[in-house]
Amino acid sequence: MTGTRFLRPMPPVERNLLSWKRQWWVILSGIFEPIFYLLGMGLGLGGLVGVIELQGQVVEYSTFVAAGLLASSAMNGVIFETTYNFFFKLREAKVFDAMLNAPMRMADVIAGEVLWAVSRGAIYAGIFLLISLAFGAIGSWWALLSLPAAILIALTFAAMGAYGTTYVRSWQDFDMIGLFILPMTMGSTTFFPLSVYPDWAHPLVQATPLYNGVALVRDLNTGLVGWHDVGHVIYLLAAGVLFGVLTSRRLDRLLRA
């Protein structure tokens, strides 16, 4: 049975569940940051901004910001899991080495770790979606698809985070994460529409994975859904698959060298 082509991601997921079952509050603590941003930026600053124009239609600023924060929640939910925790399992605890001594392939290990991280991101996004609804920051029934969209965003960043972590040499290298995550969060139309950015920056912003996630969720939350959203889905799905494959190959070289 060990030669089967089917993935077996559940053993790593079960291992993580057992590891975190007494510290579930640590996982849930991550939902508070986007809530504070929603209260401060969406509702607080939104009272001053009022409405903005999006694709030729007027949208409440709180609705605009809530969509960006939901996408960011999905990203943040997986980044910690696939960076710090992933590095600890890989370099310190040697968890992956132990898994490979069991009847598991590298693809099974990566699939399980990504699935666990995506589950965490989905929890963050789902709770934030309910809070946005309670605050009246949802403008369309299309928002029901925001959770699947958030899961896709989480999948993309889980694969990217794990791949980047395979190149981390020590804990000090994680200082670079903030140089990547914070500018992308602030510069991916999370809080401001693309029109306020300089023209030369538009291609750079649109090339980021978070922008594609934010744009997808925002269209769903506002009801401004169009064929261009298919492009966002393809982008995120392709990036997730690509970095998932690269991570599996990279770890296979590291652990079997």
How would you sum up the global shape? elongated
Overall pLDDT metric? 84
Residue stretches low in confidence (pLDDT < 50, at least 5 long) are none
Distance between the termini: 25 Å
The radius of gyration computed from the alpha-carbon positions, rounded to a whole number of angstroms, is: 19 Å
Task: Give a count of the beta strands, DSSP E runs of length 2 or more.
Answer: 2
Beta content comes to: under 5%
Order of helices and strands: HHHEEHHHHHHHH
**How many H/I helical runs?**
11
Looking across the biggest beta sheet, what order are the strands in?
1-2
The total domain count is 1
Helix coverage percent: over 70%
Mind summarizing the main beta sheet? 2 strands, antiparallel
Structural commentary:
Helices cover 71% and strands 3% of the residues. It has 257 residues and is mostly helical. It has one domain. Strands 1-2 form a two-stranded antiparallel ribbon. A hairpin with a 2-residue loop joins β1 and β2. α1 packs across α6, α4 runs antiparallel to α6 and α7 packs antiparallel against α10. The longest helix is centred in the first third of the chain and has 32 residues. It is elongated and about 60 Å long.
Topology:
Layout: H1 10-20, H2 24-28, H3 32-49, E1 51-54, E2 57-60, H4 61-92, H5 95-101, H6 106-134, H7 146-165, H8 175-186, H9 202-206, H10 209-222, H11 228-256
Antiparallel strand pairs: 1-2
Helix pairs in contact: 1-6, 3-4, 4-6, 4-7, 4-10, 6-7, 6-11, 7-10, 7-11, 10-11
Keywords, separated by commas or semicolons:
mainly alpha; two-stranded antiparallel ribbon; 257 residues
